[in-house]
Amino acid sequence: MPIRRKRFSGIAAIATTAALLLSGVSAGAAIASPRPAELPVVESSAGIASVAVADEMVTITGFAGAENAGTDVDVSVSSAHSAAGVDDAQEFGTAVAGADGSFSVEGPRLQADGTDNLYGQFTAAVDGDAIGAPHFADDLRLTAASTAEFPQVLDKKGLQVALSDDAESLGVQHAAINLDLAGIMLNKKTSDDNIPFTSGGQEYYFDASEVEALDTQIKAVSDNGALVNLIVLLYEHDDEPDSAANILIHPDASREPGAGPVFGFNTVTDEGVKYTTAAMEFIASRWSRTDEQFGRAVGFIVGNEVNTQWIWSNSGEKTIDEFLNDYSRALRIMSLSSRKYYDQARTYTSLTQHWTVPAGGNSNRFYPSKDVIEKLNALSKAGGDFPWFIAYHPYPQDLFHPDFWNDTDATDTIDTKLITFKNIQVLPEYLAADELLYKGEPRRIILSEQGCHTPGPGSNLTLDAEKLQAACFAYAYYKIRFLPSIDSFILHRHVDHQLEGGLNLGLWAYDPSADKPDAPLRHKYSYDVFKYIDTARSLEVTDFAKEIIGIDDWADVIDGFDPDALDERRITTTVGTRVDGQVTGSALLGAFDVDENGWEVSDNVAEATAGEGVLHVVDAPGMYAKQWRSVAKSFTADDAIAARGWLSASVRLPVDTELGTDTFVQIRATTSSGQVIEGEARVLADGEFHSAALQLPEAVAGDTLVRVKVMVRGTGTSRPVTSFDLESVSLSKSVATSQSPNVVVAAAADSADLVGSTLTVSLTNLDVDALRGAVRIPNDCGDIDVSRDAARIPETPTGGVAALEFTVSAVRGDASTLCVSLGRHTVEVEVTTPPPAPNGRYDFEIDTQGWEAGANVDSIARVTSFANGPRTPHGGVGALEATSRPAPATSPRVISATPEKAVDLSAATSVHVWADSYGGAPGATGYVATFTLTAADGTTVTTLNTEFSPDKWNELSIDVSGWDSRNAVVSFEVSFAAIGTTYPNWVPKFQIDDVGYLTE
């Protein structure tokens, strides 16, 4: 029976208005922010009380009011969560209200066209007038594809994983991985390679290559033992006409400059809802399988920082009620979809640290997190409560200042402006209020994205800055560890990113010379703090932080701090290995004459196939040389093997592997007691099979093997596409001594002027046996000769480093390589030299040093900090800042310096300046900066950087080695402008620092 529109204008209006009325607030008004005890109580009223969904049937129960006893109650269902409301409603069933006004209606779960009433919104009516709000499924009785218990891990330590192999080494227990729905879903079938998926009786298609890339990422992390949370996002794909982005993205999303790159979900058109439902069902079904074929995800974070929706869940300008009305549908769809396939799956909303104050001044773009929670709670309870949880981001008050213990806007009260690491305990205290509970329990909390900045330019970080970052992490982790109501602390990020507005949040510093902005270069100080903070070494690796924070004991600042509770994860045991030693008494764990024999792809591997007696392992695309490529085999109780003897693997690397100067094999074994044993061996990439073997320690002799991994890597941040062959894996009684040196050789000179410099040759022993004997530097090999060509190696145990010094006597060629002979084996290594020391000209440590404002610049000033990233000078404590006057965005803003007398740069090979700027020019496609030198004879040299990045230090460098007039430079000039916009009056600021030059 159709429902008359006497009271409401549609389902969206019903849901929003009912939620507001039930919470005691008039429609369109903002919910106040009382303390938890004063939150409005949602009371029962006439309408549907519950929608129970089983495998085949849906049961609707409710209350029509005592005055309607004996009256027909008609229940209809809308086929989608769309704002089309009840226009597409279909009759579901009719019941006669009992003497007390209660009613119950049962009907089929699937409609004739395949539509699943699991996602339906049900409305009850008497005599055509709707009673109560539309109601969604709130009681799932269906048999999910997976009913396994929610997996348990060792502790709360997590990471937004970029390098899965490294995450395992770090002991990561919780992971967050971005998933762009528009990046995997297509708007039509484009080839037979597409992955089809049926939802609601309709077929949809997914890009196989994009999905399989996610398989590789997710499976490696979950197989390594971490709980995976997928951050479900939407990005624009204008250059991909087959992407479903145009359907999935909210139709009101803004494309204005400054509006965000991450978009809101389209839950306002019927097509949008169907595609959104299909996409969410697809990801839940694929990554919740019981066999974990593609990896396993247990949590789904819907959108990013939705209280700052203008940027991170862009749905256009909307009041908080309008936005949440649309967003709550997406949240509910994800919750229902995920629990359809895994009944323990968890769904989260994502919020920033802005608790009672929005991140921006426009209330139609930015909302307080507290208001979002309250209004979502009201909407959820009015339409049938469901288990949505909180993924919070308690960054420090100022992301560029990691000393959160000094945050002034984070107080220990419910009405605090911000909730940061400093006062994170406020969040669980608030969520414990009766009115916010779900089924009598507080909604769960994970911290899914937060981190600590390392102050300074990302390519030149100081040890003090790195220690400050590490102290921030240590303090924050300990706080979260002793808050039982928070499930995990997932750190952002794994590797510093050059395009993150000047923030350096990673455990790794990035490689500025690589082709990707987050290529991993080296570990930062925080790396080992993160790695060992949940082990027996916890207090040891965090002791340094107490002085930085200004405390004597962690218990002084952390409630419930218990040092005995920190040792939650066993430290990996690293042992020596032997290379090419003769193996006796072997039992094969992997032979590949017939099939893969239970070995599966793991970290950074696309496929592994058996053939011709080997397992052929192929890289996943885009991996760095230094990342481990691995295959693994797991053992069950039925095929348990005692963890005794030597584990050996025979591996072949092709000659053209391009993995760098050294290549390595690692064997990693996990035993039934939870102990991990690993050993690394240097092997040659020569197209021949080489064996690596480690001896399992006596301490695990009573265990069985649970998992064995064989891993291969190179060095550096090149991105080769390579492969390796695994011939066999065996457990042996004994392995003879190495037939080639299992040693890592490195060489470094102490001066860029090589001849006469001290050359240090470092030998790292990876072998089981102590390193001893002699090393020789043959003068007929490589580019470098030394005055004394031999030295004795002091006896060096497994894992030790022997450092031997030589004096360079001559160089040849490009002076980059050195040959080192150990016995009958010779290794050619790259020699590292310190870069030429820059000669400073202008550093702005005291004043502006004679620089002046030029065209379209209103003023200049020496500053010690500034509002745009990276917020601090490139070097030292001062920088020069220029403030523009209003002018067209593409007009150059010019500053210059004219020395009192010409500067002689005869010895210079290059001259450089570091420049930084604000971004945000409306309509700009990019930015440009120029650096110009003028000589006394009027000639000039210029460098132009059209890939200039705002909010980071950019180097502008001029090669002057061939400029005849460089002996008399009379002017230094820098200009800055936007590209590709007609914006008439732009008033940016930009900064420069460290003007200097290099000599030969």
UniProtKB/TrEMBL annotation:
<dbReference type="Pfam" id="PF18989">
    <property type="entry name" value="DUF5722"/>
</dbReference>
<feature type="domain" description="DUF5722">
    <location>
        <begin position="150"/>
        <end position="557"/>
    </location>
</feature>
<keyword id="KW-0732">Signal</keyword>
<feature type="signal peptide">
    <location>
        <begin position="1"/>
        <end position="29"/>
    </location>
</feature>
<dbReference type="InterPro" id="IPR017853">
    <property type="entry name" value="GH"/>
</dbReference>
<dbReference type="InterPro" id="IPR043780">
    <property type="entry name" value="DUF5722"/>
</dbReference>
<protein>
    <recommendedName>
        <fullName>DUF5722 domain-containing protein</fullName>
    </recommendedName>
</protein>
